[in-house]
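Archive entry: two folds, one per protein. Generate the first.
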Amino acid sequence: MPPDRRGPRERILATACTLFYRQGIHATGVEQLAEVAGVSKRTLYKLFGSKDDLVAAYLTWMSEHAPTNEQYLRRTDLAPGERLLALFGRPSSAVAVRGCSIHNAAVEITDPRHPGSAVIHAHKEGFLRQLVDTAAQAGAGDPETLGHQLFVLFEGATALGTSIGELASYDYARPIAHALVSEALPASPEL
């Protein structure tokens, strides 16, 4: 195996992304993070300040880069109505095993002063805004309502999929999403 040529900050963040997602934030200790990343705890604290700050950096990275169905809202090769419906396709099993990293962190982080709380809130608000904006682009009569409805439906499907460890929740959510989108949009080839 070739040596890892990434710097210590990148190795720590990559390790955090793997371990926090797989094991959970509270179950992953700083000692394990440092050992797996191949750095000392001193280096970890020098680069991130605290485990809480590392959690916030992890959540920021996941918010921007995690391969989730949310990425469909940014696809320019799909019409807006198609992007809304694409959210409800079955995600890859690798992603669905543990669900949304941001949602999982929200369950674990209960202190609103934790630096990760602001990242979680910003991500979920941003996702909701993307839904509303995409609904408006698709021509929804009430994009705000459609965006909120799809937000609740998507979050529910994702959380349930994580809770029961299967992807059937997306199969049940998809026809509901289709009905909501069809009802909200004028008849057009956008769907």
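Generate the second and append.
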Amino acid sequence: MKGYLQSLPGFGPLFQRDIQPSEVVAFWQSMQERFRTKTASKADSLEMRLAAEALQRMGILDKQRFLERFTTTVGRTLYLPFEVGVPQGGWDLWGQVVVCVHEHQHVVQHDEEGPSYELNYLTSPASRAQYEAEAYTCNLELHYWRYGSTPSPRALAEKLRGYGCRPEDIKVAAHTLALTSASVRRGAVVREATHAALEWLNSHVPHLRAKQD
């Protein structure tokens, strides 16, 4: 059947570009082994429900949105609102790959700064925007690897409104992402988590990579 589908005009390349559930699971396992992390269900976590209440009271984020739309990393635990390898609303398979890398960059930040990382993230909108701009660099890098282009830095920065960041913080994040985007288009890979991810992706699913001159 696969050979027949690939023989259809225009169908073969599209068929090959799809990432498979088993590949997503294997990718997550590789990243977790590399960074010594574990995952947990966000919906089943008392810690996350308490965090949701706190974030809402602090005016940072609506609690239901936090629980259903955001993956959250605390220390070396990634709390997921989806099951890895199972596509569902808002979390397609490639999106699960991207968020895996994004969240592991937060693990890198935690390793670099220690407990002060979580404190700064929660209490300082400017720091939160800076941390997220660094992690969204992974999104830029992965998008370029797969599609040969970079998404709008401003559009990525605008996502920070949902994190309770101020307009001035978003402006700084957009500028940071714009500068990084220019480097990415020249072939740079800036973030540690992306380096680890591309090692696996280039080895196991090289057909996903955009043809680059």
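Annotation attached to the second fold: The longest strand covers residues 38-41. Residues 1-15 have pLDDT under 50 and may be disordered.
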